[in-house]
Amino acid sequence: ARSIARPRAAPTRCHGRTRNTRPVASPRASSSASSPPSSAAAVGARVDAYYEWSRFPGRVHYERSGDPATCKRHVLLLHGFGVGTFHYDAQLRELADDDTCVWALDYCGQGSSWPTASSADDDAIAGFQYGADTWRDQIEHFVETIVGAPERLYVAGNSLGGYLALYLAATRPDLVRGLFLLNATPFWGFNPSDPDDGSLLGKLAPWRGALPTPRWIRAPLRAYWDSFRSVENVRGLLGLVYGGAGRERLDDELVANIVAPTDNPHALDAFCSVVWSPKSALGFDEMLAAVNEETKRGRMCVAMLYGRDDPWVVPLWGQRLKRAVRAADYYELGETGHCPAHESPGTVNDIMRRYLRWHGGEGDKPEASADGLGSLIDGRARNPFEKFEEWRFARDDA
Q1: Which of 176, 314, 345, 384 has the fewest beta carbons under 10 Å from its own?
Q2: Does the global pTM surpass 0.85?
Q3: pLDDT tens for residues 40-84?
């Protein structure tokens, strides 16, 4: 597997507070501390905090539930594109217990993690790039400096978060004991990771996402930006990907929490950078191959919790992942679309809780969720398109 070595970051400063509820799109008060907040020592206490990463000219937001000093295991939740820690509110409330400490992180340029400069043209931001490689590095830094205890860490990711969880596990398997993949997106970015790869796109791409944004890119996108981030458009996009009973969770609070970060003065430039930043240095299939090797050696477990009714990451993609990582346990969730943790939180929490205990030597591996929505399946093809993909995989694997 390919290894990406990174220098260790400078000491981190944290600012945090404990809280029990989350107001919609409200500013957070914080107090300064020299280390991760200790006020979460009471089991179940909720911490809402910020810390500083030397590569990012701003503050990075995270949340935590549970006591990191006494827990047996840690779970890090990685969100999809355009949302934030708020998308995992149910997991932060219900998964943490005496044995489990739950963390959720906002990527730079997402949720509540933003530069502190007043202008996107500030010199302090120059050269920063919002993309998969940057976010992978951010997550690695967060695990090493804030979470700690990598031998007890499980990483869960939805959509883009699943892609990044795989990326971290493939490049730093020493930090990850297990993965929970929730409708992980199998691709990210269009600009080639190597500008000198000889491809036409590599030769023609005029920008690779490093700030500041060229005016000729920002100007036309600005005209589209307000329409893209409107309440109506956000609600419409969510309506397309939330499936079945999950649509009941598509409420005003969710839409408000998604729209609020787009009011940040850096939001448009972050969006432009995301669109133009290159693909990850490691391709998705390479990530799967690396993680498969870890599972074969018994050093990592993988559980897939995939919404059956997702129109984007359709079951074919879950089946393909299962074939690439043969030891992965594939749970299919009915009446659930692209965002299982938010659409069917009780189902996801039940499977994750029992799976964590089983992997820790307590109890049996779950065969199904208590509510009957989720069940362990073999991931075999069911329709003609899936059967063709299955045949093609078998041919290439021969």
Answers
A1: 384
A2: yes
A3: 334 458 999 999 999 999 999 999 999 998 999 999 999 999 999
